[in-house]
Write a structure and sequence with these properties.
191 residues; alpha+beta; five-stranded antiparallel beta sheet; four-stranded antiparallel beta sheet; 4 helices; 9 strands; 35% strand
């Protein structure tokens, strides 16, 4: 079994900017496990443990789900936390742009994955980029204040591909391997 998820990859410039934001927040907040900038992505669907022989079928589902879709022009313009800023557990940056179109892709993806027997996603899709996970609840008030007062310029970017990632968990953090890349704006024969 291999651990899989489907996500938009981010341009390197955006990852670098997010790395700078993480560094600014890290300097004032203890007890948070921060995501390495090279691992930041916009998850469309976490699949979890999966039989390796399904990779080709899942790749075909991704291709079919984004057929005829063009690139997304997005922007990152706010920080927040799940479940909320009063009890932050996951620190995130939120994208703005054509979120409804992104949701339609996720709906198609969900339907196509279910046709392979992959269990339905229980959580509603909330597009976000995870920056860190709170490990020490004692730091919550300072963290909440820092997130509420943190200012950064909007970060415009373009999403142009959807990737099937394999995730291997290690003591030093996850290692991601690209198993399939589906480019937006590419016509595909036969879906």
């Amino acid at each position: 079994m291999i651990r899989l998820f489907i996500a938009f990859s981010l341009p390197n410039e955006i990852r670098n900017e997010l790395g700078s934001i993480i560094e600014a927040l890290r300097s004032e907040n203890d007890g948070i496990k921060w995501v390495r900038p090279e691992n930041i992505h916009l998850t469309l669907r976490f699949i979890g443990d999966t039989k390796q022989e399904l990779i080709k079928d899942i790749s075909n589902c991704i291709d079919a789900s984004i057929q005829n879709e063009q690139n997304f022009d997005m922007s990152l313009d706010r920080l927040g936390a799940f479940p909320n800023l009063n009890r932050p557990r996951t620190i995130w940056a939120a994208p703005s742009g054509d979120i409804d179109r992104m949701r339609r892709i996720v709906e198609r993806l969900e339907k196509n994955l279910q046709s392979l027997g992959i269990e339905e996603e229980r959580k509603n899709f909330k597009p976000h980029l995870t920056l860190g996970r709170v490990r020490n609840p004692a730091s919550n008030q300072r963290l909440t204040n820092n997130i509420e007062t943190f200012k950064h310029r909007p970060l415009p970017f373009t999403l142009d591909n959807v990737i099937l990632y394999q995730s291997t968990l290690t003591p030093k953090g996850p290692i991601y391997k690209k198993r399939h890349i589906a480019k937006l704006g590419v016509e595909r024969m036969g879906g």
